[in-house]
Amino acid sequence: MVNMDYISIRDHVMKAIQAGYPSAGVYGEEIDQVFKSGDFLVKLVEGEHSRELGRRYKRTNRLDISYYHANNAKALKVAESLTEILEYITINKILYRSTGMKHVFNANVLHFYLNYNYFVMKNEVSEPTMNTLKMEG
Length: 137
What we know:
single chain; alpha+beta; STM4215-like; 2 helices; 6 strands; elongated
């Protein structure tokens, strides 16, 4: 199990979108400016970290990819292509599969939601051992 974090998932999703849409702006944080039509904003909207067994933990990342476009038909085509572009992402030579894909188009913004789940291992804490025990009796 590779050491992974939430930001790595978001950054690789942004790279995958940029590869699929090279002329679009792809952002990972809110910016003060108004987005142009055809731009993407990738945000982690929910994260979960739960213990599975021993030092093993499961992490779930819920991402919201916002796509700005006034044309509903164009936005739906983008939603269709995102299902293929983001079905799998590769990080450190490991393939991660997305789950829970869905999309909503509202007020000229396509919201494309998906999850990436992975496991992490907590570092083992070495506790000092007893030196010797002398028994009398």
